[in-house]
Structures are given as C-alpha cells and as structure tokens.
Automatic annotation (TrEMBL):
This is Uncharacterized conserved protein YndB, AHSA1/START domain. It comes from the Bacteria. It holds the Pfam family AHSA1. Residues 16-139, 154-289 form the Activator of Hsp90 ATPase homologue 1/2-like C-terminal domain. It comes from Pedobacter hartonius. Belongs to the AHA1 family. SUPFAM superfamilies: Bet v1-like (SSF55961).
Length: 292
C-alpha cells in the first residue's frame, strides 16, 4: 500500500518587538483582522478562537470585492504562551508557530503541511506575505512598557474573580485609579467594554477595550482599543495610537487555599509611573473587599 508524505514548508521573520508583544498581537482576535491577509485584494472580516488546547479557531477570509470567501478553521493542539502554538487545520494539516527571543527582537517561524491543490512555492509565498504583514503591523505599534503586579488574597478564587468584575465592587477597588470610575459593557470574550471616569473638571473620559479572553476563575485578557472623550469613542488617529497594542492580563491561581492575583500590563511609557503608583493600591482594595 502506498503512503504519501506531506511536504513541510517553513516561513520566518525577525520582528523588532519583544516576544511578549509579538505573542499578544499574534493571538489577539482583534489584531488578526488587521494583518491576516496574503494580498491587498483580501481581508479577514472576523476572527474567533479559544486560545487553549482543544480550543477551536475560525477566521473568515473574504475578497474585498465580495466575489468570494472562505473560513480558515481548525483546533489548537498545544498552547505555550510566548513560546509556541501547535494546531490542526480543519483539513487535517498541522501547523507549528514558534517564537524565539533574539535580544530585543523576536524570531517567528511557522512550519505548515502543504496542501495538494497549489504548488509549494505558491503556498510559501502566500503564508510569507501574511507573516510580513504581521511583522509590519507589530513594528508600527507604539512600544509599551511591560509591568507586573500581584497579591495574595485570603479568599477562594471564584469569590475574588466575581468581586473583581462585579459592577458595584469594581467602583470600589478601582478607586485609586479614578474615584467613582465604572464600566459599561460585558466581560464576555469578544465584547467591547468601556472603562469610564471623570476628571477634576467633571469631564467624562476613559478607555475603550476588547475582552480578548475570559476563562472564568482563571484568566482575563483586555486589549486596549482607544480612548473615550465624553461620549465619543476614539479608536483611530494619534490619540488612539498611544493605547493600541496595550493590554491588561489578570491571572488567578490557587495557593494553599488562598488566591494569587497576578496583573500583567503593557501600557505606554507615559503611564508607567501612574500604574506603578495605583495598581498596588487597587489590588489592596480588592484584597480588602474580597476577604470580607
């Protein structure tokens, strides 16, 4: 009986950005719609995925003239944040994406099994074009400073998680950032959420974000989209660029019956001092109300 051997194709790029920044934008469903295309005639109109082993992904690809489209879908097999992804496309072909730190840069390589319809050169060129688009997208994003904070709370994970995203309790624990701040929207994955406050002059403002991931009791990831001025959401232009590509990740871990809450933030350098002064205070507030 004859057996066929699949052809493996590898593409690669050096990206002038940290591994953390590359991973965040490679796995952001919002970002995928901005860079995932092999030519100017096509675009990704919708991206959905569950970034975990066994999680499904589906990226809708369409011609800009509306003449055709298809779903690029499959399953994640292995997810190692900031290191590599292994997945199986719906037709059974395997893909492995690997990130390697190279000083301040990142080497991203991707090996995929070729399909039989098009030539290997054609497929290599198309996948390389997508990777080049990704590299250009990431390198034009404003640099953000990675910050980390954590606290141990003497309460069960579920209570801490529920307290953190409860509408009334949110106003309490975020008081150090802006007294009376609140949110509008949903914490469900893929949802837009607004974080709102008023300045000393009473002007309404805040941040526009997307819930990139929410695994209840385990992990929340917020991706910054832009800012709020009054009732206007600004997600393009210079003001929004200061925020785009930034994120907040909340990780909840059980330890000896308590909960460790770890916060990883990537924001603009201008916000570094503000976050370093306010996040520890906010986490102490969260600890206080969660332990009641």
């Amino acid at each position: 009986m004859e057996t066929s051997t699949k052809t493996n194709i590898t593409i690669e790029a050096i990206i002038k950005a940290s591994v953390e920044k590359v991973w965040q934008n490679w796995t952001s469903t919002n970002g995928i719609t901005k860079w995932n295309t092999a030519s100017q005639e096509w675009h990704t109109t919708k991206a959905e995925h569950e970034l975990k082993p066994g999680g499904k992904f589906n990226y809708r690809m369409e011609a800009k003239d509306g003449s055709s489209g298809f779903d690029f879908s499959g399953t994640f097999d292995v997810v190692k944040p900031n290191e590599y992804l292994e997945s199986t496309i719906e037709d059974g072909r395997k893909v492995r994406t690997t990130l390697t730190r190279k000083g301040n840069d990142t080497h991203l390589s991707q090996t995929f099994e070729a399909e039989d319809t098009h030539s290997a050169d054609f497929q290599r060129e198309g996948w390389q074009n997508v990777l080049n688009n990704f590299r250009n997208y990431v390198e034009t994003l404003k640099d953000h400073v990675p910050l980390h904070y954590e606290i141990t709370i003497n309460a069960p994970i579920q209570k801490v998680y529920d307290t953190m995203i409860d509408k009334d309790q949110y106003t309490v624990w975020t008081d150090p950032f802006c007294p009376g701040s609140y949110f509008e929207g949903s914490w469900e994955k893929g949802s837009k959420i607004l974080f709102i406050g008023t300045d000393e002059q009473g002007n309404k403002g805040g941040m526009v974000a997307e819930v990139a991931e929410n695994i209840p009791g385990k992990f929340i990831s917020l991706e910054y989209m832009g800012i709020l001025k009054g009732d206007e959401e600004i997600t393009t232009g210079n003001e929004a660029e200061d925020w785009k590509g930034g994120f907040e990740n909340y990780t909840f871990t059980e330890k000896d019956g308590s909960t460790v809450v770890a916060i990883d933030v990537a924001g603009s350098k201008e916000l570094q001092d503000f976050f370093s002064a306010t996040w520890p205070l906010a986490l102490n507030k969260l600890k206080e109300i969660s332990e009641q």
